[in-house]
Design brief:
By secondary structure, this protein is mainly alpha-helical. The protein is about 60% helix and about 5% strand. The protein is elongated and about 85 Å long.
């Protein structure tokens, strides 16, 4: 699975390596220069773009062609892409160009490296790409500051600064793009790839937290450990299913609560408890596939046309986002199911099960108890069902029909982040709800892993005896998931989760 810190480190190493040895960029550029001398038609280098591919452009207009390309494609709309993802897009673009199949000019390439080295991160609107011919509109906005147009993010990512002002402060002149430069800059899948990498890395930690939260609910609801028996999962050996069952077994070692009801005679728990390995596990396997697709893409060249060592310049379709669109859609669904089953466990915790007070408060009527946070979970789970409609099944022809099938993967990418954020909120609500329920099982102790997590939660969110401002609890619970300290504490004191 993708690890964001490692990705940032690898990209930084790649950029440093290219600064020390830019031979791959120089060699691919020389292929373009040599081809220009032959004066043969080459898509996007001395021809128009898209439906205008058959229109030749004279030598004296080749630089203007590339400038016009960036300006004309800068038609993004909507909110700005977050600075962290924008930075990742810039670094991924540099890395892809540095692989030596794009033919970008050294001066333009060096200016991108300067931006990265000085954390000058272009601000880009999030919408406008159809996920084929690359993420054209967002990447065009990323390229605008090279020309002295567009915006940069300020230092803390809360506002933007005109590119012209930033360039003046750094004593930089706008770049005159060379033939092929504009096409190399805006062709590529860096928006889809950056969103995918950003969310999938965070999902790895969320998977562990989801198992831990489910184990806490299982204890609070006096659920059975039998469905997590290793033998069950050996005869249906999906990797994710086996991992989840193992995590829960490890988290519940030495549980006094389990021992207290081992012979209670209950036959089966509801699916939201009994089928945690199967549901969480399927999401793990789905996210694993998505992560592998993203990792492959991050180390690919998605420009067009492509430049090869023997002098060939070949037009192809590596810019088409279909591999990512399918993977991102799959990731949305996999994440959404974690929230769907979590909300069901939250609902079950409120029903007054086997000694738990209804709505998890002793005095209700005057108090609504934990009734309303579950409404929020239900709302977010329902919203995810809309967001998870697969963008990749849609296609609207563009460029007068020349680009007659597009991936819409950029929409998948944007919705993936929204789904992730919703799942984070739903799991946070189950987290503090399960902690409240577990309080009522005292003096019996839960499994060691659950006990460690419960104490960690209680340091941040106190037990609730009456109604209060629950939004604070949700925010604190989300923070516990985001900073990853709770899972790390369990792993440090008990065992490594998978």
């Amino acid at each position: 699975m993708i690890k964001l810190d490692q990705l940032y480190s690898d990209l930084a190493d790649s950029i440093e390596s290219l600064k020390e040895d830019p031979s791959s960029v120089k060699e691919s550029r020389q292929v373009v220069e040599d081809a220009l001398d032959l004066d043969e038609p080459m898509y996007g280098i001395n021809t128009g773009f898209g439906a205008l591919a058959n229109k030749r452009v004279g030598k004296e207009e080749l630089k203007q062609l590339q400038r016009n390309l960036v300006l004309s494609h800068s038609v993004g709309v909507g909110e700005l892409i977050p600075k962290d993802i924008s930075r990742l897009m810039l670094q991924l673009k540099i890395h892809a160009l540095g692989l030596g199949n794009s033919g970008i000019s050294e001066k333009t390439f060096d200016r991108l490296i300067y931006f990265s080295d000085h954390d000058l991160i272009p601000a880009m609107p999030e919408k406008g790409s159809v996920g084929a011919s690359g993420d054209l509109a967002p990447l065009a906005h990323m390229s605008l500051p090279l020309l002295g147009y567009g915006l940069f993010w300020n230092e803390d990512g809360t506002d933007t600064i005109p590119a012209e002002k930033v360039l003046n402060e750094h004593e930089l002149e706008p770049i005159n793009l060379q033939p092929k430069d504009g096409l190399s800059l805006i062709n590529g899948t860096q928006q889809m790839g950056a969103y995918g990498a950003y969310v999938l890395e965070k999902s790895l930690s969320m998977l562990k937290a989801a198992d831990l939260i489910a184990a806490m609910s299982l204890e609070a609801l006096q659920g059975s450990i039998k469905p997590f028996d290793e033998r069950i999962h050996e005869i249906r050996p999906h990797e994710g299913q086996q991992q989840v069952a193992r995590n829960v077994r490890n988290l519940l070692v030495e549980s006094e609560i389990l021992e207290s009801h081992r012979d209670c005679g209950k036959v089966q728990d509801p699916y939201c408890l009994r089928c945690v390995p199967q549901v969480h596990g399927a999401s793990r396997d789905g996210l694993r596939y998505s992560s592998q697709a993203i990792e492959t893409e991050l180390n690919s060249v998605t420009d067009n046309p492509l430049v090869f060592e023997n002098g060939d310049i070949i037009s192809g379709g590596n810019f088409h986002g279909q591999p990512l669109a399918l993977a991102l859609d799959h990731a949305k669904i996999a994440l959404a199911e974690l929230a769907s089953i979590s909300e069901r466990r939250t609902y079950l915790l409120l029903k007054g099960h086997d000694g738990l007070p209804e709505l998890l408060m002793e005095e209700t009527g005057i108090n609504s108890g934990f009734m309303i946070p579950q409404y929020t979970s239900a709302s977010l789970v329902s919203e995810n069902k809309v967001l998870c409609h697969p963008s990749s099944v849609d296609s609207i022809p563009t460029s007068l029909g020349q680009e007659d099938h597009v991936s819409m993967g950029s929409i998948s990418a944007l919705k993936l982040l929204e789904v992730y954020q919703n799942v984070e909120q739903v799991l946070a609500i189950e987290l503090f709800t399960a902690a409240q329920a577990l309080d009522f099982r005292k003096p019996l102790k839960p499994g060691k892993g659950v006990e460690i997590a419960h104490k960690f939660i209680r340091d941040a969110i106190p037990h609730a005896d009456e109604d209060h401002y629950f939004k604070d609890d949700i925010s604190k619970a989300v923070e516990l998931l985001q900073n990853r300290n709770m899972v790390e504490e369990v792993e440090k004191k008990l065992t490594k989760l998978v």
